[in-house]
Give the backbone structure.
Amino acid sequence: MRISTGQLYDRTIQSVLDNQADLSDVQQQLASGKKLLRPSDDPVGTAQVIRLTEEIELINQYKKNSNLLVNSLEQEETVLKSVNTAVDRARVLMIQSGNGIVGTDDRKALAIEIGQIRDQVFDLMNSRNPAGEYIFAGFQSASPAFVFNPSAVGDKYTFVGDTGANQIQVSDSVSLQVNNSGFDAFENVLSRLKTSISGSVGATNVSLNVQGQTAFDKFYEANYDAVTPANNEFQISILSATQAQVTNVGTGAVLDTVDFSSGSAVLYKGLEFNITGTPGDTVNFQLEPPEKRNIAETLNDFVIALNNENIANNDFDEALTDALAGVDNAFVNIANSISKIGGRRNTADSVFAANLDLEISNKAARSNIEEVDYAEAVSELSRQETALQAAQATFARVTGTSLFDFI
């Protein structure tokens, strides 16, 4: 086969150029630290790098979401603790107002301070986050969670938000609630459970009062029927001069037989009843439907009672008992809300730590695929330089075959 001078030059020059290109690639790898300079270098590896990069960017977004979540939870927890502190002070003042030596002027002074606490609590219930959104308004975060209507016939402090809960994604499979609704934290608070006399036959001088609220609450929870109102009526029947029987009017079930003395106070399940009667006489009482009232409304009701100069002692004692029960129940709701925040915070911290581990793992995997091994690259650089020098030397010798080179 004959090789022309043009072919000889072309083949030799191409060999030099190829060696220069290989040397340039190694130099770029060393300069950039990247082993994959173009997709054609390793199509499979390039696809894996793209996927791992997407995963790392997604994890970075989850980390940002976790930080936003933690900030929101910390702010809400601070607000709830402030409400708890304020209400605790109000409770101390309530107990002080029940002191027998406290007069009308003292009650008015207490009403001023409790009124200020009420206003502070109302303001905290309408707290906003740095974005200007109302924390406890649910999905209606652009408007206040609670409003005050001084001319309202019933409740003056009302919840106008909703029970929606915004969620934030902190991992591929975990979404956490950003905030508690004001309904759960403040509105859904049980008022004091009550009972009332619904009728009597033969008995006289009948009175019925709740003396042991805790014991009565247990009786109420065990016997109240939200579906059938008739089952919420009970009858005290005088069996003899020393015994009375308690039955459920709706079901006919006999609940208990208790010691009885006509005209004397008898305590049953936290209820103190005093009945003057003879065997065969009956007194009926009913469990009143449970009511719910937010803490601002509870404080406002008690302020009204404190400012009422004509209120009877029994009525004031009743208002005080109602207020204390409402405050204690509000403490339970606030504590539960703080516990929920703590649970979500622990989950967020755990997921955040898992995301960090996953990020490190993905970065290591990506590094193994795309980043250059400097020891190997330096050796390859030396080899390519030698190959290039050899190609250049060969070019000089191969092309030096003309007779003119020997003249």
